[in-house]
């Protein structure tokens, strides 16, 4: 009898917690435009980031608006269509779910809040340099993706550069020359063989010779890669990686997993996909600040 009573109590608690965790249908993660929401029998009110919406609410979306939603099931959704819509209609377009999306959305919300209160700086990632070519990267970075973008800051306009990529022993594996201040390293290139660790430096090829600090990029060990790939696949099932919101959520996964260069790339992609949405620009800037990846003047 005691066992049955205990099970009934646990079941009741579980139902209470479940209903508490689902007291919204959609949560607003990002918001741009003169968008409004109307609760049942209520007045139209300005939509705010962080708002919780239910099926009976009405949403009025302005021209050129952008809204990033999180569904209670764990799916992420972007909405840009102008007009007035019941929340139930918006929800009907969601066909994927992932409990991990909510986890990383919460992680990103925490980082945003920390940034607003000035508690967002961590140590040990980069000392913030004064080099003529400032490579925006941790000194040592674990990387998961086969393609990893690097970028650098310099006062030189329209410069040309050589990207020197060496193995751990200093042997040059690859050194492409490019114009601009960004380059995507493709580790599937046969020049890299089975190497797991690379030393990367950017050198100016112009009249005024300059070079960046050398940084180390380290590919994941097989066991760690297997674990994180499993999480990645589940997470990607609930987002659209070709969207700013999807890249924003993915950045949270990478950062929490200490994959700082992968995270930086996703934060930047989100910002570039939706440059007029303040959330993504602020998230990118705060990431650089808290990881000391800003150049010291």
Description:
The protein is α+β, with helices and mostly antiparallel strands and 297 residues long. It folds into two domains: 17-97, no CATH class; 98-297, Immunoglobulins (Immunoglobulin-like). The protein is 33% helix and 26% strand. It has seven helices and 17 strands. Strands 10, 12, 13, 14, 16 and 17 form a six-stranded mixed beta sheet that branches. Strand 2 (36-38) and strand 3 form a beta hairpin. The chain is elongated. 31% of the residues are buried. Mean pLDDT is 87; it is low at 2-21 and 123-127.
The proportion of strand residues reads: 25-35%
* Most strands sheet: 6 strands, mixed
CATH domain class name of the largest domain: Mainly Beta
Tell me what the CATH architecture of the largest domain is.
Sandwich
Q: What is the total domain count?
A: 2
Number of helical regions: 7
Q: Would you summarize the structure shown here?
A:
This protein is α+β, with helices and mostly antiparallel strands and 297 residues long. Helix content is 33%, strand content 26%.
Descriptive labels:
alpha+beta; disordered N terminus; 7 helices; 6-stranded mixed β-sheet; Immunoglobulin-like; 297 residues
Blueprint (SSEs and pairs):
Elements: H1 2-21, E1 26-32, E2 36-38, E3 44-46, E4 52-53, E5 58-61, E6 66-71, E7 76-79, E8 83-86, H2 87-91, H3 99-116, E9 134-135, E10 140-143, E11 147-153, E12 160-166, E13 172-174, E14 177-179, E15 182-186, E16 197-204, E17 215-219, H4 222-236, H5 244-256, H6 260-273, H7 278-290
Parallel strand pairs: 10-17
Antiparallel strand pairs: 1-4, 1-6, 2-3, 2-5, 5-8, 6-7, 9-11, 11-15, 12-13, 12-14, 12-16, 16-17
Helix pairs in contact: 3-5, 3-7, 5-6, 6-7
């Amino acid at each position: 009898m005691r066992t049955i009573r205990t099970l009934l109590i646990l079941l009741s608690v579980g139902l209470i917690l479940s209903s508490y965790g689902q007291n919204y249908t959609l949560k607003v993660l990002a918001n741009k435009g003169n968008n409004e929401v109307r609760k049942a029998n209520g007045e139209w009110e300005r939509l705010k980031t962080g708002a919780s919406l239910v099926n009976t609410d009405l949403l009025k979306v302005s021209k050129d608006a952008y809204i990033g939603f999180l569904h209670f099931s764990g799916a992420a959704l972007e909405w840009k269509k102008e007009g007035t819509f019941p929340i139930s209609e918006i929800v009907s377009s969601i066909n994927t779910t992932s409990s991990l999306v909510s986890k990383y959305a919460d992680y990103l919300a925490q980082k945003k809040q920390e940034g607003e209160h000035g508690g967002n700086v961590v140590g040990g990632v980069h000392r913030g340099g004064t080099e003529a070519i400032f490579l925006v990267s941790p000194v040592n970075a674990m990387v998961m993706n086969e393609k990893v973008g690097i970028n650098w800051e310099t006062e030189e306009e329209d410069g040309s550069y050589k990207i020197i990529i060496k193995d751990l022993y200093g042997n040059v594996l690859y050194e492409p020359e490019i114009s601009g201040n960004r380059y995507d390293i493709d580790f599937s290139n046969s020049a890299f063989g089975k190497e797991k660790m690379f030393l990367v430096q950017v050198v100016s090829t112009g009249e005024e010779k300059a070079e960046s600090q050398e940084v180390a990029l380290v590919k994941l060990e097989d066991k760690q890669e297997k674990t994180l790939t499993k999480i990645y696949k589940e997470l990607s099932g609930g987002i659209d990686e070709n969207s700013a919101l999807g890249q924003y959520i993915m950045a949270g996964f990478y950062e929490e997993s200490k994959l700082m260069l992968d995270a930086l790339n996703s934060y930047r992609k989100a910002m570039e996909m939706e440059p007029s949405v303040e959330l993504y620009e602020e998230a990118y800037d705060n990431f650089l600040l808290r990881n000391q990846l800003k150049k010291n003047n």
